[in-house]
Amino acid sequence: xxxxxxxxxxxxxxxxxxxxxxxxxxxxxxxxxxxxxxxxxxxxxxxxxxxxxxxxxxxxxxxxxxxxxxxxxxxxxxxxxxxxxxxxxxxxxxxxxxxxxxxxxxxxxxxxxxxxxxxxxxxxxxxxxxxxxxxxxxxxxxxxxxxxxxxxxxxxxxxxxxxxxxxxxxxxxxxxxxxxxxxxxxxxxxxxxxxxxxxxxxxxxxxxxxxxxxxxxxxxxxxxxxxxxxxxxxxxxxxxxxxxxxxxxxxxxxxxxxxxxxxxxxxxxxxxxxxxxxxxxxxxxxxxxxxxxxxxxxxxxxxxxxxxxxxxxxxxxxxxxxxxxxxxxxxxxxxxxxxxxxxxxxxxxxxxxxxxxxxxxxxxxxxxxxxxxxxxxxxxxxxxxxxxxxxxxxxxxxxxxxxxxxxxx
Length: 409
Hints:
GTPase binding, ATP-binding, 409 residues, six-stranded mixed sheet, Transferase(Phosphotransferase), domain 1, three-stranded mixed sheet, Phosphorylase Kinase, domain 1
């Protein structure tokens, strides 16, 4: 599927000429050529029509704001020969990921540093450049421990983004493709770190960023299993005075798409919150957002959440080695994040407080109602570093419904 967003018209009478010379500007490696892009202002990139992509208006701030180019100049510009050497000429043995529009290769720089090189592959030249500018325009402004690190880029022989390579790959590869299952401690660490990364994008950046493609495959894991949000190809700036974007066709990943997005094309922070709720369910259950039979994890989990059937929800691979208190917190947060109504979903800052064991943070959320938990119990172990087990509750605190949430009416 593909879709277009609202139309944006260029204010430049010579846009056609500039558009034709844009690819040539990228073929040169001089900084002067990059600076020339400032004259392009805001204009339309018409992206692919046969996929889950949309027509994107490149943020005027990226093309016209000198600060953005300062960010760009601090990144290394790679020659094609450097990228070819690093990846052994983009050999298939170094191909670590492939999507509809890009390929990701593992590479090694001359200093020994391992990198991931994303090469945009599909579409006409102007479409590829549009994708490149859109993604790099976001990434140069992002700097947080829980977001992927952009090292540099290359524009010779195609559009390339060069990032830090995550030693442990993606969450999806470990959760679904590894023989060794992730421990509960690591899963909870990933949940909390990803929440912190999303809060940064929504509230901590100079400009609000909606990622729009939060999923297990887009959460990279460092050697210490710290999560890093990656792939900003679908990300959108959300101006301060705007409440949301409205788009007319769909893009993203099925299983993670919020109802208001599917029905009305509404995109805002709550779009990411819903996807994060699905991610939390994946961490608890070990199930995919959309399995091979096309069953939705959200639809499967909702009846179990309503019955508070923790045993059925927990990934069997965990056995009993998990913190009951943390599982309750994660499932409560997931229940709130996947609420049908976006206004009843929490902000990411509130999700973080809840995951940190502060349910009082929800008292001011008068409109946030969770229909899935009839009763929430938080077990306070003597030492949360050690997992509690079912049937071995230590000090038990039952939190009443009115303290944790307002019942759905």
